[in-house]
Design brief:
The chain has 800 residues and is an all-alpha fold. It has 46 helices and no strands. 79% of the residues lie in helices and 0% in strands.
Length: 800
């Protein structure tokens, strides 16, 4: 008996194991389905993952996991699950349909169509697949084909939800609105709890002029999903639009009564009140809510924000102090300290701010807000070495903090670690690709390094994602202006005028383009429209003054600027332009005094130094231009753009060694600056043409120009190739550059002529060199062009 008692359990265990993995995975799968029916997707997910641990190629488990992710709006994970299910089971119709719908929602119409067609190949009358194919066809503008698909689906299932919605949308697109409404009514009757259908029906009722029925649908939604505040907000907005403020307020208060312990309904009422009755009224309501629920800290923080919007600093501080007193070092108390520290920082009371931040970090050394703000304070004190450790700690705790990443970039830039600064900003862009701040800061770094083209590419990349952002459009337009890219600016102007005809930026840019094209009177008219749309905008006012100046209406130009300065006496741009007006009319002493005033007001700003230097160049005093730029460089902590301009001024003065040193300084911290590399390479090729080391350095500088479409860069590359003995390569490069131009500049004619001469193509060489010399232009190599032309003539005479 003992033997049998010992063998029995072992035999039972073996039988249990023998029942094997298939039975266990089926048990897990069935249990997952049961949990889904019970409304517990979290536990169901674990059961389906158990299935996949046993059999990673179980398509149904992948499908169910995808369904759970879709239910939680984790669309990427859901797509991955459906995709895996289809991969494992190519005839899995449900997975095809779900994946196809996600693809359709993402705008990948052809891929969505492929999924629909895959199902229809298996089941030609599948209504879900027909509706999906019809939706794709409707999106592509083929309404007739979409109608046929919807009708075919309805023949199979007269109450098919997607087919009815599709057919209604087609009818609405065909302006058969009443028929669309009838279809939606039919769909709602068949699917009474479907939120999207009722929203579509409400919109339809509005289109046919029946607001009472639209209201009825919106009210029904608040009953179907009473916890979804979006329905209440939508109803309140509709009632407000209809002029029934009382009913809108009642709807909002009804949501509060239905959810008395929830904060959001109360904040929704406050937001509506602020919008409809003013901030003071909203503040009164919020005060009441705080009194009723003193431990609901979200209400107190909202109260502080609203008081701040009204400029009530004492009240803001009192609210934060009350939170700190009530919550101590709890979560809300620490948050209040951070907010109060930010307030102190804004008031330039940084020592008090640091005390508050110290209290936070003593309690929680990982607090991201406190670390980030302490770093920001360090940067205002020009202490990047103190800021960087705090920012690294903050990013370790929150790698996606764009504020910390942008501050880290600023800290690295302060230490001349430009590559590290760009890396930090790129991470910020990757984290928040639709936020403009990091793009603008990246563009600023590139501009300061002289890489205007790179800055433009960064801003254009943002506008591909968010085309209506006027701040970035304006920055791009300024870059296009600095690069003299008038065709691109014209396109930018038209795009803004089309999208935002109410915004002054489009008119301003169009005015600049007209100004460039010599249509000065037209530019004046357009710029006046920009000023009408925003009277305090300085750029259109400055552009208008320039148009007056170009028209010879100096008095009008000066009057417009002095009028603006009477209202904004310290505006640097206007002060600079007044200096330009003085210079244009030959009043050089007044111009110099004007630029000196700007420098005294804004000693850290590069623009006035460049204008003063340009004025000195214009009056023939190159030494003073160099001196002015050196002063500006020292005052601005060696601003890269001013160092670049110094290089140009030194080159113009024939001080080539100093110019080379200036260019090399810029490139050391900004190796991607093509404009600087271009100037340096050309200078080396001309001034040190007999020095192999210098020519090798020039060749290194221009290697990246080979794929460029800018003729200036190609001309430099070709000339450097020629100086390095590669005449054939130079010819190919220069001919590519010439093909981009209608009129070839004299310097490029000289370069091409020299290449032709070295290749023995004397007639072409003489033609090019003669054109260069006879152009009247002064360019580096003019004497060499004359000498070569003389040698060619002598050679021709000897040969004759």
């Amino acid at each position: 008996m003992k033997i049998f008692l010992r063998i029995g359990p072992l035999l039972g265990l073996c039988l249990l194991v023998a029942c094997g993995s298939e039975d266990r995975q089926q048990a897990y799968f069935d249990r997952g389905l049961e949990l889904l029916e019970e409304g517990d997707p979290v536990k169901a997910r674990l059961e389906f993952k158990n299935v996949l641990q046993i059999d990673p190629k179980h398509p149904q488990a992948w499908f169910q996991l995808a369904q759970i992710e879709a239910g939680q709006q984790n669309w990427s994970a859901a797509f991955g699950g459906y995709n895996k299910a289809v991969e494992l089971k190519p005839d899995y119709a449900d997975a095809h349909l779900k994946r196809g719908q996600l693809l359709f929602d993402a705008g990948q119409l052809q891929d969505a169509l492929a999924d629909a067609e895959a199902v229809l190949a298996l089941a030609p009358k599948d209504p879900d697949a027909l509706a999906l194919r019809g939706a794709v066809r409707a999106k592509e503008g083929d309404l007739d084909a979409a109608t046929l698909d919807a009708q075919a689906a309805l023949e199979v299932d007269p109450s098919h939800r997607n087919a009815l919605l599709l057919l209604a949308e087609v009818r609405r697109a065909e302006n058969a609105t009443e028929e669309a409404v009838k279809l939606l009514e039919r769909a709602v009757e068949a699917h009474p709890d479907d939120v999207q259908l009722r929203l579509s029906l409400a919109a339809g009722y509005q289109l046919v002029g029946d607001p009472s029925k639209a209201r009825e649908q919106l009210e029904t939604l608040t009953r179907i999903e009473p916890s979804q505040l979006v329905h209440t907000a939508r109803l309140a907005a509709f009632l407000t639009q209809q002029g029934d403020q009382q009913a809108a307020e009642q709807a909002l208060r009804g949501a509060i009564a239905a959810n008395p312990d929830e904060v959001q309904p109360k904040l929704l009422l406050v937001e509506w009140t602020v919008k409809e009755k003013g901030a003071e009224a909203g503040l009164g309501i919020l005060d009441g809510f705080v009194a009723e629920a003193p431990d609901e800290y979200d209400l107190r923080f909202a109260l502080a924000e609203l008081a701040a919007s009204l400029g009530q600093r004492d009240k803001v501080e009192a609210v934060y102090r009350a939170i700190i007193e009530r919550d101590g070092t709890g979560t809300a108390g620490l948050k209040a300290r951070n907010r109060l520290a930010a307030l102190r920082f804004a008031q330039q009371q940084t020592d008090e701010a640091l005390v508050l931040l110290g209290e936070v970090l003593e309690e929680d050394a990982r607090d991201v807000d406190a670390l980030t703000l302490r770093a920001a304070i360090a940067l205002t004190r020009e202490k990047p070495d103190e800021a960087i450790p705090d920012l690294r700690d903050a990013l370790q705790n929150d790698p996606e903090s764009t504020r910390a990443l942008r501050l880290l970039a600023r800290a690295h830039e302060m230490r001349d670690e430009i590559t590290l600064a760009q890396d930090a900003l790129q991470k910020a862009i990757d984290v928040a690709p639709a936020e403009p701040a990091a793009y603008l800061e990246m563009a600023q770094i590139l501009v300061r390094s002289g890489d205007m083209a790179g800055a433009s590419r960064i801003l254009e990349g943002f506008l591909e994602k968010v085309p209506d952002d006027t701040q970035v459009q304006s920055a791009l337009a300024k870059l296009q202006l600095s690069q003299q890219d008038w065709e691109a600016m014209a396109q930018t102007a038209e795009s803004i005028l089309k999208r935002r005809p109410d915004h002054p930026l489009g008119y301003y840019l169009k005015g600049l383009v007209l100004q460039r094209e010599g249509q000065l009177s037209e530019s004046v008219d357009v710029l006046k429209v920009a000023i009408e749309k925003r009277s305090d905008a300085v750029e259109p006012m400055l552009a208008l003054a320039r148009s007056y100046l170009l028209l010879g209406q100096v008095e009008d130009a000066e009057a417009s600027i002095t009028a603006y300065l009477s209202q904004h006496p310290a505006n640097a741009a206007a002060l600079n332009l007044l200096g330009e007006i003085y210079a244009s009319s030959g009043r050089f002493d007044e111009a110099a005094a004007q630029f000196a005033q700007v420098i005294s007001l804004y000693p850290k700003t590069p623009s006035a130094y460049t204008r003063m230097a340009d004025l000195s160049v214009r009056t023939g005093d190159l030494d003073k231009a160099v001196s002015t730029l050196r002063t500006g460089i020292n005052e601005t902590d060696r601003n890269a753009f001013l160092v670049f301009r110094l290089g140009i001024a030194l080159q113009d003065a024939g001080r080539y060694d100093e110019a080379i040193a200036a260019y090399e300084e810029v490139l050391k911290s900004n190796p991607e600056a093509d404009a600087v590399a271009n100037n340096l390479a050309m200078l080396l090729a001309n001034a040190r043409k007999d020095d192999p080391v210098s020519l090798s350095r020039a060749m290194d500088l221009v290697q990246g120009f080979a794929g460029s479409e800018q003729w200036v860069l190609l001309d430099t590359l070709g000339w450097v190739q020629f100086r390095n003995g590669d005449a054939e390569g130079a010819l190919s490069t220069l001919e590519k550059a010439v093909s981009q131009l209608e009129s070839v500049p004299a310097e490029m004619q000289f370069h091409l002529g020299m290449v032709y001469a070295s290749l023995g193509r004397d007639d072409e060489a003489k033609a090019m060199l003669t054109a260069a010399v006879d152009s009247g232009s002064t360019f580096p190599g003019l004497d060499e062009a004359r000498a070569t032309l003389g040698a060619l003539s002598s050679r021709a005479a000897t040969a004759g």
